[in-house]
Amino acid sequence: MEQNTYRYLRELTGSNFQIVDDEPNIIGWEVKNENGTYIGEVEELLFDPNTNAVRYLIVDLDDNGMNLDNKSVMIPLGIAHLHTSDDEVVLPGLHADQYNALPAYEKDQIGPELEVQIRAIIGSPAALRMEETIVEFDQNHFYNHHHFDKGRFYQRGGLHQNHMTGQSSDKQETIHELVEKSKYRQEP
């Protein structure tokens, strides 16, 4: 039986990894939510050296004015997208509670447990949807998740249609609105 061996992710800065010509180097770009509120700045990118695929944005949450903890956090590449025209990263769908629940990024602390923890926090608030439980960490399978879909990230403007209903995303409630409503619906 073959044992899964974890491949440690590396920072782009100081490596030989090169961004593909048609993909912008987003280090230093502002990160905003779907309403245009400043969240932080892209501080670094983490990539898998065996596949040369970027897996995470390291976002510095300092000085954002949103009552978020002052720390840097790992955000899976596929849940964000490039702004339609500005040099900005848009990170829709995360609530302030999720940012605060994310562990502070520490370069030497990355491993399977941390990646599973991040996915559980970012997956969705439990009140809205259940994420699948990861029983055994398989790095190749783990990165097949939509959180790491490079195509979603580099698509300027993100996904504009709800694939289930065909409705435009601007007609749907944001994750922030749904979380706030769920807080008031809880039974005593």
Describe this structure in words.
By secondary structure, the chain is an alpha+beta fold. The protein has one domain: Photosynthetic Reaction Center, Chain H, domain 2, CATH 3.90.50.10. Helices cover 20% and strands 18% of the residues. The protein contains five helices and seven strands, in the order E-E-E-E-E-E-E-H-H-H-H-H. Strands 1, 2, 3, 4, 5, 6 and 7 form a seven-stranded mixed β-sheet that branches. The protein is globular and about 40 Å long. The termini are far apart.
Task: Give me the CATH superfamily.
Answer: Photosynthetic Reaction Center, subunit H, domain 2
Which structural category do the helix and sheet elements fall into?
alpha+beta
Low-confidence stretches: 124-131, 159-176
How can the largest sheet be summarized? 7 strands, mixed
String of helices and strands: EEEEEEEHHHHH
The fraction of residues assigned to DSSP E strands is: 15-25%
Shape: globular
How confident overall, as mean pLDDT? 74
Query: If helices are DSSP runs of H or I spanning 4 or more residues, what is the number of helices?
Result: 5
Architecture, CATH level 2?
Alpha-Beta Complex
CATH topology: the name is Photosynthetic Reaction Center, Chain H, domain 2
| Name of the level-1 CATH class | Alpha Beta
Tell me how many strands there are: 7
The whole-angstrom Rg is 17 Å
Instruction: Summarize the amount of helix as a percent range.
Output: 10-25%
